[in-house]
Amino acid sequence: MKVETNYNEEQLEEGQYKTSIMNYIKDEDNKQDNQSHDDNQIKKEKEDDDKKFIYTPEEKKLLRKINMATIPFIFAIVFLQYLDKVALNFSAVLGLFQDTGINGSEFSWLGSIFYLGYLLFQIPNQYCLQWFPMSKYLGTCLVLWGIVLGCTPLAQTFPQLLALRFLQGFFEASAYPCIQLLISIIYRRKEQVILYGILMCSNNLGIALGGLIGFGFLSLNGLYGLSSWKWCMIILGSTTVGVGVITFFFLPDKTNSRWYRLTPEEHEIVEDRMKDNKVVQNKVIKLNHIWEALKEIRFYCYMIICFLLHLVNGCTSIFSTTIIKNMGFSTMQSILLNIPSGFMAMFLVLLAVFLSRRFNENNYVGAFMCIITFVAMLLLTVLPISGAMLSGILLATTNPGSAIILSVIGNNVSGYTKKVFYNGAYLVAYCLGNFTGPLMMIENEAPRYTSGMIGYMIAAIVSGLLFLFARWTYVRDNRYRQQLKNEDGLPSFTTDENQPIDLTDREDLRFIYRP
C-alpha cells in the first residue's frame, strides 16, 4: 500500500511536470505564431502599400521631368569619378612605370593614398553638405579634382605622384555623399534602389568603357612628346573640369529646384514625395542624431561590411589590368579584357536590384552577393595561371553589395543629420577598405597574391553573415512596432502647419524598416 502511494505521488509529480512542459511548449508555439503573424502582417502591409500606391498621370509626368534633369548628372559624375580614380590602373601599362621609375610597392601606395585623402575630407564634408548648396559645392569639387588630375603628367617622381593622388582623393570625396543625399532627398523610398543601381552601373560602365578608352590612349603614345598615360590624365581631367562647371550652374539640388519647372499641382506632389522618403532638409546639425547612430548595432554592421567588401574593391580597381597581364596577355589585351568584367558587374548590379525589388528584401540579397564575391576570389586562388582565371576577374565585383548597403541606408535611416552621418561613415569605411585592399597585394607573391586572396575570401564570408544579422535586427524592431500599432500605442508627430518633422527612424515609431 505504501509502495502504491509512493508510485501515485511520483506519477502525479511526473504528470505535473509533463503538463508544465506541454504548457511551456504551447506558450512558445503561441509566441512564435504571434511573431509569425506579426511578420506576415508587416510584410502584407508593405506589399499592400506598394500595391495601393499607383502613380497618377501627373506624378508620372513629374517623375519624368525629375529623371531627365537629375539622372544625367548622377550618371556623368559617378562615371567620371570612377574613371578618374582608376586611370592609374590603365596607366600601369601605358608607360607610367617607365616615365617615373616607380616600382610595384610604390604603385600600391599610389592606389592607397588616394583613399587617405578621401578619408580625411569626410569630416569637413559633413558640414559642407548641410551648409552649402549642393550644386555649388559639388561643382567646385569637380573642377578642383579635374585640375589635379590634369596636372598629374607633370609629376616625375614618386613623392610628386603621391601628393597629387592624395589631393585627387581629397576632392573626389565629395561626389558619393552628394549623390547619395540627392537620391535620398528627391526620390521615393521604393524608387531609391533603382537609383543606387544606376549609380553602381555608372561605376561599372567606367570599367567597361575605360578599357576602350585606355585602348584609344595607346594610339596617342608619343604625340607631342607625351606618353599614353599622360594623355589619359590630361583628357580625363579636362572633361571633369567641364562637367564641374555645368554641375555648378545646372544641377537640381533640392526637391523644388527651379530646373524641374514645377507647376502648383506638382508642388503638392513633391510635398507628398518628401513625406514618403522621410527626409526633411535643414541646415541644423543635430548631435542627438549622430549619437543615436553611434548607439545602433546596425551602424557598425554596415560599416564593417563596407570596409570588408572594399578590401576586394581596392584590389580589383587597381590591380585587375596587372593580374590579367600576368596571365600571359599583351598590354593591349590586358586593357581590353577589362571590358567584359565591367559589363558582368553591371549585370550583377541589375540582378541585385531586380531581386531586391522582386522579393522586397535587401539584406538577403546582400548576403547572396557576398557569396559571389567569395567564389570570384576562390577562382583566382585555385585556377591555374592562364586565361581560365578571367572567370574570377569577371565575378570580382563588390558593387552589387555596395548598392544594397546604399539602398538600406536610403530606405531605413531617417533624420537629415543622421542620414548625412551614415553616408559619411559609409565613405569612411569605403576609404579604409580601399586604402588597405591594395596593400594586401604583396609584390613578391605575384602573380597569385595568395595571402591577399585568402583575406578577401574571409572578408566576403564575414560580410554575408553581418548582412543576415542586420536583417534580424530589422525584423525584431518591426515586430515591436507592429505590437505597438496593434495596441494603439503609436504616437503621432505633426507641427501646427501639419508639416513633417525631422525625426529619426528610432524616434518615429510609425517608421517601418525594409529588411
From TrEMBL:
<keyword id="KW-0472">Membrane</keyword>
<feature type="domain" description="Major facilitator superfamily (MFS) profile">
    <location>
        <begin position="70"/>
        <end position="478"/>
    </location>
</feature>
<feature type="transmembrane region" description="Helical">
    <location>
        <begin position="167"/>
        <end position="187"/>
    </location>
</feature>
<feature type="transmembrane region" description="Helical">
    <location>
        <begin position="364"/>
        <end position="383"/>
    </location>
</feature>
<keyword id="KW-0812">Transmembrane</keyword>
<feature type="transmembrane region" description="Helical">
    <location>
        <begin position="421"/>
        <end position="442"/>
    </location>
</feature>
<dbReference type="InterPro" id="IPR011701">
    <property type="entry name" value="MFS"/>
</dbReference>
<feature type="transmembrane region" description="Helical">
    <location>
        <begin position="137"/>
        <end position="155"/>
    </location>
</feature>
<protein>
    <recommendedName>
        <fullName>Major facilitator superfamily (MFS) profile domain-containing protein</fullName>
    </recommendedName>
</protein>
<feature type="transmembrane region" description="Helical">
    <location>
        <begin position="66"/>
        <end position="83"/>
    </location>
</feature>
<feature type="transmembrane region" description="Helical">
    <location>
        <begin position="228"/>
        <end position="251"/>
    </location>
</feature>
<feature type="transmembrane region" description="Helical">
    <location>
        <begin position="299"/>
        <end position="323"/>
    </location>
</feature>
<feature type="transmembrane region" description="Helical">
    <location>
        <begin position="335"/>
        <end position="355"/>
    </location>
</feature>
<dbReference type="GO" id="GO:0022857">
    <property type="term" value="F:transmembrane transporter activity"/>
</dbReference>
<dbReference type="InterPro" id="IPR036259">
    <property type="entry name" value="MFS_trans_sf"/>
</dbReference>
<keyword id="KW-1133">Transmembrane helix</keyword>
<dbReference type="GO" id="GO:0016020">
    <property type="term" value="C:membrane"/>
</dbReference>
<keyword id="KW-0813">Transport</keyword>
<dbReference type="Pfam" id="PF07690">
    <property type="entry name" value="MFS_1"/>
</dbReference>
<feature type="transmembrane region" description="Helical">
    <location>
        <begin position="194"/>
        <end position="216"/>
    </location>
</feature>
<feature type="transmembrane region" description="Helical">
    <location>
        <begin position="107"/>
        <end position="125"/>
    </location>
</feature>
<dbReference type="InterPro" id="IPR020846">
    <property type="entry name" value="MFS_dom"/>
</dbReference>
<feature type="transmembrane region" description="Helical">
    <location>
        <begin position="454"/>
        <end position="474"/>
    </location>
</feature>
<feature type="transmembrane region" description="Helical">
    <location>
        <begin position="389"/>
        <end position="409"/>
    </location>
</feature>
